[in-house]
Amino acid sequence: MIANARMYAVTPQAEAAWRALLACVSVRAGVALPYARHPAPAPVSALWARPDCGCVFMCGYPYASAAVTPQLLAAPVPALARYEGRPVYFTEFIVRADAPAQSLAQTFGGRLACMLPESNSGYNAPRHYLMRLAPAGTRALYRPAAMATPTPREVIDAVLAGDAEAGVIDSYVMDLLRCYDPSLAAQLKTLALTPPAPIPVLMAAAGADRQQCMRVRGALLGLHDDAAGTELLASLGLARFVAVQPADYACLPAMANEAERANFALTDAAGAVEAPSPDHCQLGKPS
């Protein structure tokens, strides 16, 4: 079975930290988990479809929507206080640090860099959040960026290049960038956060050996019990891993279904509203 942290291997240094943590889990579990690289532009959905997944990060929305449900192992708990000790994350709405916008509403009508519809933080969660802000009958609040941005780094690059006025990014990705690439993170500012959502989870393929999966799960859940494991967790801004259940992720397809019923789009070339004047832009400030 393979291990992989593609979703959160945001820099070479972060990937090295993940490889060290997952190697420790492999040793403690007594289960071989060779690290299989799967870098962009290879689609992350192809990674999730591999039958030999043994300890691989998967976004909660495709997990909860999968026809054949993978086995849940454990979910990370980010250490920063804003996560309140829970296995959750947010979507950050980002703009260039030197952008004139001081509130999210000031970017409405502009171009939004987002990820693929399979992404929760990069598509599903921000769409649901914006749907609650939109005036009745509004189809969308943003126009699409000029090009597809299927990865967080491509979202950031589009914003920094001026190809989009705003972008949407997983908050834990931003945590890791602020740690491992602070010069890049300093070029961005966050205007708003979505409500918390269940964070991507480490999973194994549905057909993976269940006894081995139980040992891997136990090793993950016990990492915070000793100094060596705590140090590995701290290198990635994590407090611990916790057990989660399939029901914890059921809210994510429900969010998508609500937006579909409302006929609300994350971006729409024809139907996006124009940005309001600055005097009326008080929505969506981060807490």
Short synopsis of the structure:
This protein is an alpha/beta fold.
Write down the domain tally.
2
Poorly predicted runs: 277-285
Principal-axis shape equals: globular
Give the CA-CA distance, first to last residue. Answer: 41 Å
Assess the beta-strand content as a share of residues. 15-25%
At the first level of CATH, the class of the largest domain is Alpha Beta
Secondary-structure element string: EHHEHEEEEHEHEHHEEEHHEH
Q: Indicate the CATH topology of the largest domain.
A: D-Maltodextrin-Binding Protein, domain 2
Provide the CATH architecture of the largest domain: 3-Layer(aba) Sandwich
- What portion of residues is helical? 25-40%
Strand order of the largest sheet: 1-2-11-3-12
Structural class by helix and strand composition: alpha/beta
Protein name: ABC-type transporter, periplasmic component
Organism: Cupriavidus taiwanensis
Pfam families: Phosphonate-bd (PF12974)
